[in-house]
Amino acid sequence: MAILGRRHLGICQVLICSLVACGGDASDTGGLEQMSAVEEQPEAGDGTEGRHESGYTTMNVKKGGTLRGVVNFSGAVPETRTIVVTDDMNACGGSVQIHDLEIASHGGLANAVVSLTDITSGAVLEAPTSPATLDQRGCRFTPHVVLAGVDQVVEILNSDPVAHNVHTVAFDNRSFNRTQPPSVEKIEVSFPIAEKVRARCDIHGWMSAWIVVVDHPYNAVTDSNGGFAIGNVPGGTYTLEIWHETLGATTQTVTVAADQVTDLSIELAQTSP
Ligand SMILES: [Cu+2]
Question: For the region Disordered, what residue ranges are annotated (predicted)?
Answer without folding.
Answer: 38-57
